[in-house]
Amino acid sequence: MIQTLDDLRVLLGTLPGPDTVCRDIALAREPQLTKPRGALGRIEQLAAFLSAWQGRHPPAMQAPVAHVFAGNHGVAALGVSAFPPEVTLQMVANYRKGGAAINQLCRAFGVRLGVTEIDLDHPTKPFNQEPAMDEAEVVAALNIGLGMDLAGADCLCLGEMGIANTTAAAAIALALYGGTAEDWTGPGSGVSGSALDTKIKVVAEGAARHAKAGDGLEILRRLGGRELAAIAGGIIAARLARVPVVLDGFIVCSAAACLKAVAADALDHCVLGHVSREPGHRRLVKALGLDPLLDIGMALGEATGAVTAVPLLKAACQCHMGMSTFAEAGVTDHD
Ligand SMILES: O=C(O)c1ccc[n+]([C@@H]2O[C@H](COP(=O)([O-])O)[C@@H](O)[C@H]2O)c1
Ligand SMILES: Cc1cc2nc[nH]c2cc1C
Question: Which residues catalyse the reaction (predicted)?
Answer without folding.
Answer: 302
